[in-house]
Design goal:
With 374 residues, this protein is of the alpha/beta class. It has two domains: 177 residues, Periplasmic binding protein-like II (D-Maltodextrin-Binding Protein, domain 2, 3-Layer(aba) Sandwich), CATH 3.40.190.10; 121 residues, 3-Layer(aba) Sandwich (D-Maltodextrin-Binding Protein, domain 2). The protein has 14 helices and 15 strands. Strands 1, 2, 3, 4, 5 and 13 form a six-stranded mixed sheet that branches. The chain has a five-stranded mixed sheet with strand order 9-8-10-7-11, covered by helices on one side. Helix 1 crosses helix 11 and helix 8 packs parallel to helix 14. It is globular.
Length: 374
């Protein structure tokens, strides 16, 4: 068959593109193989797993060694203590840690100000990890103001409300405004909104245009809330009926009590009218500057952000979802799943949420002091 000049050119262009794509894939495969061999030569990667969920990932770490022949030496425990030790070592010229999976607060308040992190975006080489289409809302998510150091790979909806199922019907709480109903005055127990661990919920709600400062003023000053610093105690009071409703920081303990047969629910089965919030909690990964095993670090970071790893992470982590949209979340409990029919406020994508946390929590403390609450 004789082709027209135009048709011939199209065939030639198509063939040329095929050759380029094949060559590009071959180069990428060769670069990946080179990275794997360099990581194997280093033999290990030193990782911090800080926080409740990352501690559960310890059982997954051997999978990296099975796949690549590189050992993961991991440490768990307090992020604050690890940061203090790492910064002291660095001042003495010692660099012992490669990567960190854990909360963003330590990264933002301790590691970034002391120039201890390297841009993690520079380490991403796996095309599927770098592809925005593979991630929630079509973009890669970072939990730092510069958008390059702390990669948020997972998230879960914030659960602010627990309730006694014998005393409260879920449909009675359809909005945050519902919690200000006079019928609940003196009947709410809460973790202090300025307490340790409250920042994700409180700062998100404070910044929300339909909730904001006025809601906190009314909640703290009008509702005669009982504040507790023992989450287990607060959840038990809801479970045993001393208080119908628990707010802030009691959901995990309430769910544990529900599993023991108590009439308590640690989350609402519906979204609030004002909207819902996502927090990355401890599902973030960072890479330390001047890592002692740079190739193993790069390989580990790309593996930890892969679909394969996230399937394992969700299985082990149990209470949060992946921000990858190609990972099944049927094993994630309903209260931890990112629902596709809900438009969440993604707190860690908002620079204000990162930069204004301290100031907002100070304002909440002042409101509590004005109400006579210490």
């Amino acid at each position: 068959m004789t082709r027209t000049p135009v048709a011939a050119r199209r065939v030639a262009v198509t063939a040329a593109l095929a050759v380029l794509l094949t060559a590009g894939t071959a180069r990428a495969d060769a670069e990946w193989d080179k990275l794997v061999k360099a990581a194997q030569a280093e033999g290990k990667v030193e990782v911090i797993l800080s926080g409740q969920m990352p501690r559960r990932l310890t059982k997954i770490m051997p999978e990296f060694q099975k796949k690549y022949g590189v050992k993961v030496n991991f440490q768990t425990g307090s992020g604050r203590k690890h940061a203090s030790r790492i910064l002291a070592e660095r001042r003495a010229g010692r660099f012992t840690i490669d990567a960190w999976i854990g909360g963003a607060v330590t990264g933002n308040t301790r590691l970034i100000p002391n120039k201890a992190l390297t841009p993690i975006q520079d380490l991403l080489v796996d095309p599927e990890v770098k592809d925005p289409a593979k991630w929630y809302k079509g973009r890669l998510h970072y939990a730092d103001a510069a958008g390059k150091y702390i990669f948020a790979w997972g998230a879960s909806p914030l659960q602010q409300v627990s309730f006694n199922t014998n005393m409260v019907k879920a449909e009675q709480i359809t909005s945050f405004e519902s919690l200000l109903d006079p019928r609940w005055k003196g009947k709410i127990v809460s973790w202090p909104p300025n307490g340790t661990g409250s920042a994700p919920s409180v700062v998100s709600m404070w910044l929300h245009p339909r909730i904001g400062e006025q809601w906190f003023r009314r909640f703290i000053k009008e509702m005669n809330v009982t504040f507790v610093t023992d989450a287990r105690q607060g959840a038990e009071w809801v479970a045993t009926g001393r208080f119908p409703i628990g707010v802030f920081g009691l959901s995990t303990q309430a769910d544990a009590l529900r599993g023991q047969g108590f009439p308590v629910q640690g989350f609402l089965p519906h979204a609030m009218k004002e909207g819902e919030f996502l927090t990355s909690s401890a599902a973030n990964i960072m890479a330390l500057d001047r890592a002692p095993n740079p190739n193993a670090t790069k390989l580990f970071v790309n593996w930890a952000l892969s679909r394969e790893a996230h399937i394992l992470f969700l299985r082990a982590g149990k209470d949060g979802d992946s921000l990858r949209v190609d990972v099944p979340n049927d094993e994630v409990p309903p209260d931890g799943r990112i629902r596709r029919d809900v438009d969440y406020y993604v707190a860690f994508d908002d620079p204000r949420w990162i930069n204004e946390q301290g100031e907002i929590l100070k304002k909440v403390t002042k409101i509590m002091e004005e109400a006579g609450i210490k």
